[in-house]
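hey m, so remember when u said the tokens were messed up on ur end? i reran from scratch. heres the input so u can diff it against urs
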Amino acid sequence: MLMALVVVRTLAVAAATVLMARRMRRETVARPAWRAYLTAFVLLTAASVVETVVVLTGTPVGTAGLVLTVPLRLASTASSFFLYHGVATWFRLREKTRPAGRVDWLVGVSCILGVAGVVNVVADVPPGVAGLATQLRWLHVSSIAVLLSALVVGAWAMPRAIAGRARGIAGCVLGVLVTQVLFVLAGPVTGIVVAAWCAWTLLAVGFGWLSLLRPVATPRRHPSTFPVPATSSVGLVLGLAAVVGAGLHVETRHWALGYGTAAVAGSSVRLVRLVRDLADHDRARRQASTDDLTGLANRREFLRRLSAQTVRRGPFSVLLLDLDRFKEVNDQHGHAVGDELLAATAVRLEQALPGTALLARLGGDEFAAILPGVQADGAVDSARTLLGAVAAIDVSASVGVATSTGHDGLSGTELLRRADTAMYAAKGGGSRVAVHDDEADRAWRERVALSDELQAALDPAAPAGTTDQFEVHYQPQVGAGDEVVGVEALVRWRHPRRGLLSPAAFLDVAEERGLLPALTGVVARRAVGDLAGWRAEGHELRLSINTSSTYLSDPELLPLLDELVRGGVDPRHLVVEVTETSLMNDPDRALATCREITARGFALSIDDFGTGYSSLAYLANLPATELKVDRTFTSRALADERIAAIVAGTVELAHHLGLRVVAEGVEDPATLGLLRRMGCDESQGYLHSRPVPAGEFLDWLRARTGAPARL
């Protein structure tokens, strides 16, 4: 019966090995673990075959038996190494961390050698051939003890990883180890050994059954806690203990000295690797929390520190600083220059803040600071200090301030939002520094809501008719002989809740949100359609369409003009108005775009002339056909001789350049008479008509020209 048990066990182990080899080829995620299990079972199969030969041939215990026992012990011990590696790999894969590598395998070997070294110090190992057999037995027991410890500690540290089939695999490994202990410690063949052989057979069948289960596609995510670093420390301590113990009995403890030295060497390799990993982790942590360009804290780190500050129950302030017109720096000089400016700004800001403050770059041209222990007055002083620091490098900025008492329950996210609200209030009010208050918060919320509603109204996927909220009103342009020569298209938004909104209420929001191309397209297409109807009725008018300060450099402008031409409009009847600000944002690009506009046959008008900082050199180079004198000059020309002189000089300059002059903001006959005496070619203003919808404008036009009114 004993022989039958040995043969059956050997066949079961061999069959399990074949099944595991098949499973390893099908596995993707857990292939390294199954490879280690397969290697262990190959060794166990070899050991089982040797033991079967010993039993079947009745080899006696002496030298011949020892020759067969040595490879049996070595194979069983080596299988423990690979089982340890398989368990470590399995735990790491279940926790979805970096897979166990050769260094982790070395940790297990080192710990086993350390245990064996300590055992050799305290145990009485006979010399010679008998001592060799004892050494192999203790080495085998040491390997089993280490693997048992790894299983127990791993299961205790990661209970969620030991679930499902993982429990089955861990249980099978544990059973294999227990049966090996019984084999090693039981001595000659006894009832215990027979029971162990039966258990071996069942465990081999269990491993084979587990290998037939469907592979797990994706492991679950949990923080890795598998105790490999701790195991390396244990191996180092045990190895040192073995070396010290062997040193006290150097004549009789050669094996202990060898085991201990090897354990120390292997564990040291892992500890050196651990130090390197910790350094890499620290470097990665710093990279994850630091802005690459400026070296300051990044947004993630700032929010983490801000959240920590809110739970300290002490007063503090948050500053949010945004550079003015930074986009123009990137557009005109390139991103490399913009990056240099941001780096220089970061240095200035950091030098201007106290050492207790945290300065961060949130992204783009936004910087933020946390000032512990500082309330509103001190925060405003710090904000002005920051503005002075960046002014030294010819940079202007706006700063928003939000404060917390530490007991108001405000979250870090809410404080940052309040600082952002105050910063926009500072930009809009021109004060450069603003402290958050309820009024500013209300205005900010309204602005955000308006921006979202504007986005929805202009969304191409919105229901049909949504863009009908936008109306085009027209204001006539009248020549020196009182004839109507042109009309300017002006947008209005009939808001569902707020009523009719003027451009001042939403154009800057549209520009911030990047909606001007879509809005300009709606206005231009509708206005061109109205123009076609008027001209078909015999009214020889031209149409003026406004562009914003940023839209002139937008790549969608020229395609829109081409679309209008394809729609049938004569480009000679359209005037594209550009502002001085748009010309100076990026002069070279603006000049190139203006030339593209006129090359297509459109007329070009310089709007609001005199209100910006344009260069006369650019005025001379622009292919413009019209110049519009802003209402800030025309409305004061009667009362201020200096203003009148400026207007007269502007008219004369424009005529010398071959430009038509249109005076805006004309509201009374006296001003109109003065402007006409100065030589203004055309006028536009409330004296003639307010901006009105298309139908009202057509009625006004018919009444003025004597054409029949609409029925």
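this time it looks ok to me. The first helix runs from residue 2 to 26. if urs says something different then somethings off w ur setup not the seq
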